[in-house]
Specification:
Distance between the termini: 10 Å
Oligomer: single chain
Largest sheet: 6 strands, parallel
Pfam families: PGK
Enzyme class: transferase
Subunit structure: Monomer.
Subcellular location: Cytoplasm
Family: Belongs to the phosphoglycerate kinase family.
Structural class: alpha/beta
Helix content: 25-40%
Shape: elongated
Length: 399
Amino acid sequence: MSIRTLDDLLAERVSGRRVLVRADLNVPLDKQTGAITDDGRIRAVLPTLGALVEAGAKVVVCSHLGRPKGAPDPQFSLGPVAGRLGELLGAPVHFATDTVGDSARSTVADLADGQVALLENLRFNAGETSKDEAERGAFADQLAAFGDAYVDDAFGAVHRKHASVFDVPARLPHVAGRLVLREVEVLSKLTGDPERPYVVVLGGSKVSDKLAVIEALLPTVDRLLIGGGMCFTFLKAQGLEVGTSLLEKDMVDTCRNLLERSGGKIMLPVDVVVADAFAPDAAHDTVRVDGIPSHRLGLDVGPETVAGFSAALSQAKTIFWNGPMGVFEMPAFAAGTRGIAEAITKADAFSVVGGGDSAAAVRALGLDESSFGHISTGGGASLEYLEGKTLPGIAALEN
């Protein structure tokens, strides 16, 4: 893979030049207050932004947040992100109240060397996500007009064929930012020749979301540990009662087939925490997987499962984890995710946390991020990379 890097751009001198940076600032916001609840993605782009600021570039940052429908929607404004980004950079971030309109043009025009501007949410413009190449291209033209060079540091978006990710780099000299470069280097270790034993932990709610990565990983991993809501479809495939737990009925046969040809690599829970309802204060107990009551639902893996999974992880030299083991947002059902996360930190292994809810869980549970080898910022992008798919944003940087 041949991609020019931020260091290549800095070597060409960027002082006084406008550099358009595609960042992934898609942070979670509190629905009541609008406050940022996890600023991990903002922190992740600081090394790239800091280097550009120090070099005297006029830095124009663009990002999406949430899934607005191609028109302005106040609940998805990047305004709060501009404030937090300024705090972390230690200097004001000039915020444009539109993406490519009058506010954006004047905000960019007024930038001095070493200053940073943030454009309003890219997805407030239908052209960002359009499948029509002409519409997407027209929006990319407007964005590209704000830069003399382009840096992609939004790994969480590189699997999307969107204007700011795929079309803009065709219009400007382009490089990979520090974050994107690190993500690709780490994930290439997993798809190349990982040190063994190589153990993968998959959780989350749906088998259908992870089927492609399971298919891709099965031939290469030594053990595949499956928890989260998706485990109940596998348990059903073994003929077990799963009560009212999350179940993808149309995936039961697929799971049975995966179990049959896994050669014993797949490990499933042996006990689960079941509750009367999906609620933080619901009555709950731990039961064996062959004793799940028909009227109850599983919301976490149990302590015996944590012990078994931890034993497998303790032997590993390479670990990839994507997806929580239970509903970690509710304290009563967080022990499984915490237990597995702690086991990963104790293993003498190179560990990668595959973004999304897994990364959120690490921070929400107060775990030391530095005790993991790498915490990815891109859940979907990480999985698609491991599946061997071509990621549009990476392909655009290679061209």
